[in-house]
Amino acid sequence: xxxxxxxxxxxxxxxxxxxxxxxxxxxxxxxxxxxxxxxxxxxxxxxxxxxxxxxxxxxxxxxxxxxxxxxxxxxxxxxxxxxxxxxxxxxxxxxxxxxxxxxxxxxxxxxxxxxxxxxxxxxxxxxxxxxxxxxxxxxxxxxxxxxxxxxxxxxxxxxxxxxxxxxxxxxxxxxxxxxxxxxxxxxxxxx
Length: 191
Description:
Elements: E1 20-26, H1 29-37, E2 42-50, H2 59-62, E3 70-77, H3 84-93, E4 102-103, E5 106-107, E6 113-117, H4 120-139, E7 148-151, E8 161-162, H5 170-173
Parallel strand pairs: 6-7
Antiparallel strand pairs: 1-3, 1-6, 2-3, 2-8, 4-5
Helix pairs in contact: 3-4
């Protein structure tokens, strides 16, 4: 895998053709990233910013809510071990996709729920999982899913920007660091 190469211009770099990737936003990126470290088949993760209109945003700029970016996590996975639906099942169950522009105590546009895919086909698959989980959410009497779903190329400036080094694998370096999860407690239906 060579992260310095970026043939698609989407900011994620290039990786082995046998791997897939998706960019997820579900609140504070430290906690979302930590969840995916424990998933068999996840090859690597990185935190960053996506979905906004400002190129090369810094953490301080994203926190002003003026860049339009979400705190996001790049999840690179082996689809022979876990497919996109498996990754998204974990995503839906680990945050509250009905909390528009927030997750728990974290409030602001940078904490909105989003799925940015590398292909239009993956965006269609993500929308199908949102529809499936939306039924579960509605049956539980919760509001609609507000998750933004789009190919990364169509989201804001169309790329993923890596966050500063001190944010990368933050909870591995700071095991007692801040985590914010506002999960609904609902489960994605088994296939």
